[in-house]
Amino acid sequence: xxxxxxxxxxxxxxxxxxxxxxxxxxxxxxxxxxxxxxxxxxxxxxxxxxxxxxxxxxxxxxxxxxxxxxxxxxxxxxxxxxxxxxxxxxxxxxxxxxxxxxxxxxxxxxxxxxxxxxxxxxxxxxxxxxxxxxxxxxxxxxxxxxxxxxxxxxxxxxxxxxxxxxxxxxxxxxxxxxxxxxxxxxxxxxxxxxxxxxxxxxxxxxxxxxxxxxxxxxxxxxxxxxxxxxxxxxxxxxxxxxxxxxxxxxxxxxxxxxxxxxxxxxxxxxxxxxxxxxxxxxxxxxxxxxxxxxxxxxxxxxxxxxxxxxxxxxxxxxxxxxxxxxxx
Amino acid sequence: xxxxxxxxxxxxxxxxxxxxxxxxxxxxxxxxxxxxxxxxxxxxxxxxxxxxxxxxxxxxxxxxxxxxxxxxxxxxxxxxxxxxxxxxxxxxxxxxxxxxxxxxxxxxxxxxxxxxxxxxxxxxxxxxxxxxxxxxxxxxxxxxxx
Lengths: 328, 146
Ligand code: SF4
What we know:
- The structure holds two protein chains of two kinds.
- Chain A is an alpha/beta fold.
- Chain A is 33% helix and 16% strand.
- Chain A has eleven helices and twelve strands.
- In chain A, α3 (93-102) packs parallel to α4 (126-136), α4 (126-136) runs parallel beside α5 (149-158) and α9 (253-266) packs parallel to α10 (282-293).
- Chain B is an alpha+beta fold.
- The radius of gyration of chain B is 15 Å and the shape is globular.
- The chains are: A alpha/beta, B alpha+beta.
- β2 (44-45) of chain A pairs parallel with β7 of chain B.
- Residues 38, 40, 164, 204, 233, 235, 275-276, 300, 323-324 of chain A line the site of iron/sulfur cluster.
- Iron/sulfur cluster (SF4) is lined by residues 38, 40, 164, 204, 233, 235, 275-276, 300, 323-324 of chain A.
């Protein structure tokens, strides 16, 4: 109870962080004057600036239900709650996609818990996904964990819209948070593999992943730079309530702002999006403003006021009811 | 899959659309909170704002906003009237709602001005059980049966 509020909607000392204006210049040089706000169906979303959210347009499916072998400290399988549970569905992956498509779904995120090697068991669903892509025209995003060669080859056949995975650049985080017998090099190898199979990678960097401390984030950015992805997503640690993860302090606004700047400068031509996990409440408002100041290309579930803020910056805001970078 | 169990005290009224509970005293003062299914749909609450004491609201209008694990949106007035008090403890620590939604987790007290016209749209008494069952069925089949 004592940490329920600080972790979700942290108290923070209000401060104004000035983002280097060069970031805006980089965005202007490389992208159209627009910002996209994303709102996938994982969460119902309605603010004073946006009322047209649909939870059925882009739906998340877990291939393992609520089961996961890793039990990561920040998640404890809680992020699988609320996804459609394929294990308890009377039918195949294709049947589920078909039923969803009938109800107006345009895209799916195929997710699930990992095995002890950090892989989400997607392989057996590949034939169904190929069919769902071809016959139903669904945009298919996947969360494969750390996919091996065979999975990458299969995903390439599916024609996935994006392969989303966390990139971890620090050994302690891999061992202590993910309980995985892997190294940062394994993550880099996966980026190389995705690149080789021409899969549209959407790496996520979690700021403050090691109990709120920034440790491997810079190394993760360096790895991603070597294989410029389709889109890069930045998120901020938000331990889910009930996970028991003890976080004394989240990254400061200063640290977050500096990382936004560095990311924009490091990947000038890659769309960078602030993803859905981040603190809520007043701190979110400040983080979201910094993201727009830093010339990021989009935000998931923006704080109320960001549509107006974007317009003040001369960029055209638009909404997509799907995961970061999906377009239809 | 284990069936979920929800608690719905039988001495309360419920706003079936927005999953709010209402408790009425003799002076048309209505204590308002979020019911068990509503809370399950929201997940852990992170942040609540409530309109100040003295605000006049119509049924269905926003009386505040909330951010939770599975939702960002408005809190809607289940009856028309004037907000006569707000629960600042929950504003300061929304986790209280998750812990004790029917007691310490109340959100606002409204002095109802149209109770006689509006209470028949609320769920209570013998209508309660069938409504709970229908709502549970709706949730379990969400995405397929909706
Ligand atoms: S951060 Fe973006 S891409 Fe990743 S899960 Fe959230 S909305 Fe989807």
